[in-house]
Design brief:
- The protein is about 30% helix and about 30% strand.
- By secondary structure, it is an alpha/beta fold.
- The protein starts with a strand and ends with a strand.
Amino acid sequence: MLFPGPLKNVMRGSRGGPSGPNGSGQPVPPRTAENQKGVSTRVSRGLEEFFTHIHGQSGLTLLDLGGASQQNVSFITDLGHRFSSEDFLQVIGETSGADSAADQANPGRIEYFLRKTLDYPEHHFDGVLIWDVLEYLAPALLTAVVERLHRIVRPGSYMLAFFHADDKLETVPYYAFRIQDMKTLHVSEYGAHRPAQLFNNRSLEKLFASSESVKFFLTRDRLREVVIKA
């Protein structure tokens, strides 16, 4: 879904809609003022690193996997870039049944998910803001998504992903990320939910083994920020 200018009323829906997954097949509640647990502003070294690599350029095509927001659209397009957005968790909810993990391993559903979210030409994007959505993908779907991401980004492009640093947690905070400036995020929390899987540094290096480089930033709130060079 491409947004060359201000956000239009055409996005698939806000992230974490009524049918979004939490790793156990149960719905994730929609993001509303009633279930918002808190909002914080945080400096993000990963975000700063991401924008450092595209600083001074214009006319790039960037992809956001956390669902479209006017704040992110405006920030990216004001820099002179084109912006596409996909709401991963909303689409997972639309394509998964009661047993989310089993459905995410179904080859037919994997192919359908990729068509719904990442059906773009090869080497189409100059960067991807993944945020934390990969934690909600079961192994088979995760592998397919990472492979597709590497196909649709240009060689040498950068991707930014967030992962919780404690891989023993049963539930993790459920976030929405909004860009304030090139190194600062507004982070809204909407409760805690069970992810499909969690990662340590070694498993992340394995996940992105086909990438040119993987750089880690560990934050004070135990959120691991990862910048991947494709």
